[in-house]
């Protein structure tokens, strides 16, 4: 009997626990004074059996095919070195742009689905083109089909927030020598009550005309004198200077201004003074150039069949869409999410905020914006004021990205490369989607930007995209 | 007997150790599996009995007097808001500047004690003034006493590296409205083989003449049009953009350029183009403005009797000197230290390096440079490439500073204020002195800057200053 007792299972004096899954178990063990190591394990794809089946194939039998395609996509994202070469009227450079066409952000949608800010911006561009004299007249032209609306992305073009592009809009011309492709983006309109913030006032229309007739030609002359400027080279420097190059692009803007300074000062055109005044007061000027660079890189990367990497991500204020390299031109959409973790200008709040809008989410696909939150104390301010929260945002991006930039470095993380190439498999498996650093517009009134914050891409887009990729490859 | 045994001192089952002093004791305890908490205690003032006696008085009977004075010094450092108001020939603005005088960095010294780079820079300025046609002729003028040398600091002026100032040199005029005082610094000469890097070639002299006759008047006109610019406001932004505003001032330079951009473009003077080209290629341009701002703040702060705060710190390449607010104009000097933690340009190394030189160490007294290392991934690169090392450099500054800036924030440390006001008592007690982020010049040849690194102020200066303050107050 004594012998029997001795052979009973003896509980060890020291217990260490490896806890897989729910953290509360580990907490309970720690509360009793024992050590517990946690493994952050979750049920894959939240237990969605259709997704689990698709993931089983895409990580199993199809894995080597997908990985090979993804490696090529990452190479293209990492090696593209787009350069801005000039500014031109849209009609002279943007492919398939109809003479009566206006380009807008995000996936395509019907006129009656347009949110307030985007509707007002379209009207402003229609008036800028001289096709209508009032917002009402512009509205009925569009409603009557006498102005054609199309998504900018289909035309190698990206537009921030609610900005729109007509045939005479002055756009940056960006060349990607590695891919042999080009991309386009309008000149950033600057702060205040302007069309890209959803304003269609006479002043906003006059500003569009000034950008077209004055800023465009003057800046083009300076850019021609400066020669092609490598955009990711400026972006890499800006990332080490507190920019995430989405919510904040001030350092990169200043680097760009320094680069063109002698050429601006050297212009004989006296209108250069008003352009210089505009540049000096616009710390978001580089945003549109960064977007065009990201667009050029993702467009080249989008031509790789079989890849599970996201190469398109954009919102129109009504819906949010993503595209995969492996599924071509098809958008996978869901309702546009609200912007969270927001800071509002005094007197404004979430009840007045339009949903997430604009093509700028393309930045989050190439290691910028939310992916580079750890680069930016300014972004940390939106996340409670601690760098830890900014680092966690970058770490979340790392968890769903399949590559790392070799040129975009995060100084605060000892210069490790920023995460690039969102893998739809990882996003669907973990239930983690890109965090997007973005501005917020007034939903119903032409009052411009009312705040900024962080939006999270809807998981449903990633679910649809994963299933479509599986169907295509299986 | 059994009872006696029971009363014997029983060793506890669990031992936790509080270790004060040498870390090796704690390590030995940890090696045996027990917990040890370390207190970083050191013998005060390294056991120097004279210092301990002085510290006993200055932290004891004299403490409240010293603390009250220090509070006022910190207020002056923190509240000074110097503004650049223009550029002028030195003779028109710098007080007590003799018609045949050349100002140099650091404490005063005899001509035969001048290090190579500073000697060559003096010659270049003598030739720029037209007093001599060759370096040899310049040399004999100075050796013969026909050119007077004086320390710039005594004339409310600061000069970086080996830069020197003659009566016709174009200098920034900086006003400190809070203190009612002014400070001066020459225009930064930019990169290459230039006089501030110890070069006296004909090209270096021609560049000084160009700065005087072209850059000075052109930039003055732009500055007059721009109106007074608050320098610490630009510096505070630059700190959140990766500058330590000593070794690196690129972000702050770009902010300054953006502020004057419309006024530069607006100039009718066609020489503005060459000035813009110079500005566009000079990422250290703001360094001299930051130094002038720090000089204006420390000069006002230096007028508080009884304070133990360092309000002057400068090197001439031969000696290193500090001044205390409480001991007035007296320099406490020691031999100039070597620059450590250095990165050299290819082909150069420590054997070719001149000792630490220039007035720029004034920046480390107002929360910049080494004190703000944690602001700058670029500085981290000099400290082994990790932000941890940069943060430790800032923490070392915190250990000897008695205040915190309310406007200069360190983003990566969750926006805590940068340490300001080096207390000579703390430095002497802990044996810790300011780390200074600085450039390195070639010691013997006119080859310019050959690297950059971190210099540590000699402890002996702080020892002398502490004893002098004690003698004065006791």
List the helices and strands and how they pair.
The structure is a homodimer of 474-residue chains.
Chain A: H1 2-7, E1 16-20, H2 23-31, E2 35-39, H3 49-58, H4 63-79, E3 83-89, H5 90-93, E4 101-104, H6 116-128, H7 135-143, E5 148-151, E6 170-176, E7 181-186, H8 202-226, E8 229-230, H9 231-239, H10 250-265, H11 272-280, H12 287-301, E9 310-316, E10 319-324, E11 332-335, E12 339-344, E13 357-358, H13 377-382, H14 387-400, E14 401-410, E15 416-422, H15 424-430, E16 435-441, E17 449-456, H16 459-473
Parallel strand pairs in A: 1-2, 4-5
Antiparallel strand pairs in A: 3-6, 3-8, 6-7, 9-10, 9-13, 10-11, 12-17, 14-15, 16-17
Question: How would you describe this structure to a colleague?
Answer:
The structure is a homodimer of 474-residue chains. With 474 residues, chain A is of the alpha+beta class. Chain A has helices at residues 2-7, 23-31, 49-58, 63-79, 90-93, 116-128, 135-143, 202-226, 231-239, 250-265, 272-280, 287-301, 377-382, 387-400, 424-430, 459-473, and strands at 16-20, 35-39, 83-89, 101-104, 148-151, 170-176, 181-186, 229-230, 310-316, 319-324, 332-335, 339-344, 357-358, 401-410, 416-422, 435-441, 449-456. The first copy, chain A, contains 16 helices and 17 strands. In chain A, the strands form 6 sheets. In chain A, strands 7-6-3-8 form a 4-stranded antiparallel beta sheet. In chain A, helix 3 crosses helix 16 (459-473), helix 6 crosses helix 8 and helix 15 packs across helix 16. The radius of gyration of chain A is 24 Å and the shape is globular. The model of chain A has no long low-confidence stretch (mean pLDDT 94).
């Amino acid at each position: 009997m004594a012998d029997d007792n001795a052979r009973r299972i003896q509980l060890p004096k020291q217990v260490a626990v490896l806890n897989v899954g729910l953290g509360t178990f580990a907490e309970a063990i720690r509360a009793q004074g024992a050590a517990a190591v946690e493994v952050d394990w979750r049920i894959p794809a939240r237990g969605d059996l259709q997704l689990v089946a698709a993931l089983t194939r895409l990580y199993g039998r199809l894995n080597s095919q997908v990985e090979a395609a993804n490696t090529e996509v990452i190479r293209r994202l990492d090696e593209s070195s787009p350069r801005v070469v000039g500014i031109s009227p849209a009609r002279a450079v943007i492919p398939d742009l109809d003479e009566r066409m206006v380009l807008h952000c995000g996936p395509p949608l019907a006129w009656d689905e347009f949110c307030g800010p985007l509707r007002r911006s379209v009207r402003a561009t229609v008036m800028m083109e001289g096709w209508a004299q009032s917002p009402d007249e512009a509205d009925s032209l569009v409603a009557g089909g006498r102005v054609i609306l199309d998504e900018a992305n289909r035309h190698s073009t990206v537009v921030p927030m609610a900005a729109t592009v007509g045939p005479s809009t002055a756009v940056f011309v960006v060349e990607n020598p590695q891919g042999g492709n080009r991309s386009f983006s309008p000149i950033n309109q600057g702060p205040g009550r302007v069309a890209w913030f959803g304003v269609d006032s006479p002043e906003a229309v006059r500003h569009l005309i000034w950008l077209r007739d004055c800023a465009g030609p003057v800046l083009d002359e300076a850019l021609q004198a400066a020669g092609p400027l490598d955009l990711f080279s400026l972006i890499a420097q800006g990332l080490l200077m507190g920019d995430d190059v989405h919510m904040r692009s001030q350092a990169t803007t200043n680097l760009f201004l320094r680069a063109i300074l002698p050429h601006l000062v050297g212009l004989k055109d006296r209108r250069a003074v008003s352009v210089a005044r505009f540049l000096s007061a616009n710390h978001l000027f580089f945003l549109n150039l960064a977007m065009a660079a990201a667009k050029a890189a993702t467009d080249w990367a989008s031509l790789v069949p079989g890849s599970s990497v996201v190469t398109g991500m954009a919102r129109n204020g009504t819906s949010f869409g993503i595209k995969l390299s492996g599924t071509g031109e098809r958008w996978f959409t869901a309702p546009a999410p609200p912007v969270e973790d927001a800071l509002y200008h005094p007197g404004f709040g979430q009840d007045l905020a339009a949903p997430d809008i604009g093509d700028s989410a393309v930045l989050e696909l190439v290691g910028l914006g939310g992916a580079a939150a750890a680069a930016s104390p300014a972004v940390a301010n939106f996340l409670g004021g601690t760098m830890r929260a900014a680092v966690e945002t970058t770490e979340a991006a790392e968890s769903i990205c399949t590559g790392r930039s070799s040129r975009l470095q995060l100084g605060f993380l000892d210069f490790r490369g920023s995460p690039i190439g969102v893998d739809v498999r990882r996003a669907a498996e973990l239930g983690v989607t890109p965090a997007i650093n973005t501005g917020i517009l007034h939903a119903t009134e032409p009052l411009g930007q009312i705040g900024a914050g962080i939006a999270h891409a809807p998981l449903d887009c990633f679910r649809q995209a994963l299933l479509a990729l599986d169907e295509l490859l299986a």
